[in-house]
């Protein structure tokens, strides 16, 4: 009976979110790296299973990568930009603190899964190759942890967060590169 009451009282909200990213790669060997500006956009879900608690997820198209100066084993020296296009699914636990009627501060954290679908590596204005694939620098699968804080004001959302990759995405022997990304999102719940 408790399960039925919980399922009936749970509320699922769908929405859209999008915004800007500052992404980078981290590794002990990448000395000269700078954040790359990108974007993300997608469909968001918010499953409120208890008072002020929810599971937040969705499907997002996001750009990642970095500006690098590095001699990669696969393609040689790069003084340019590594771009990757990804589909990402976060699964975050969220706690929502009431501030005023209709306004809540949202704290969230949890894992994410991402899959690379495209991207190019450029150096000095020249295209050096694909980011993913047999001759690409990065593996397609990525996973990590994310955390953030945001606000719900009526149906509008604002979110500031950070994702840290835990999977080595380097596509060569003895390589160890991981993604990281900070983001600012705006959204709307239907």
Give a structural overview.
The chain is elongated and about 55 Å long. With 190 residues, the chain is mainly beta. Helices cover 4% and strands 73% of the residues. It has one helix at 2-9; strands at residues 11-26, 32-34, 36-50, 53-72, 76-90, 92-100, 103-118, 120-123, 126-130, 141-153, 156-165, 178-189. 31% of the residues are buried. β10 and β11 form a beta hairpin. It contains one helix and twelve strands. Strands 1, 2, 3, 4, 5, 6, 7, 8, 9, 10, 11 and 12 form a twelve-stranded antiparallel sheet that branches.
Coarse shape: elongated
Tell me the total number of β-strands.
Answer: 12
CATH fold-type name? Porin
> How many structural domains does the protein architecture include?
1
User: How many DSSP H or I helices?
Assistant: 1
Query: What gyration radius follows from the Cα positions, in whole Å?
Result: 19 Å
Low-confidence stretches: none
Query: Which structural category do the helix and sheet elements fall into?
Result: mainly beta
Major sheet, described briefly? Answer: 12 strands, antiparallel
Helical proportion? under 10%
Give the class-level CATH name: Mainly Beta
**DSSP strand content:** over 45%
**Second CATH tier, the architecture:** Beta Barrel
Give a quick summary of the entry.
This protein has 190 residues and is mostly beta strands. It has one helix at 2-9; strands at residues 11-26, 32-34, 36-50, 53-72, 76-90, 92-100, 103-118, 120-123, 126-130, 141-153, 156-165, 178-189. The mean pLDDT is 89.
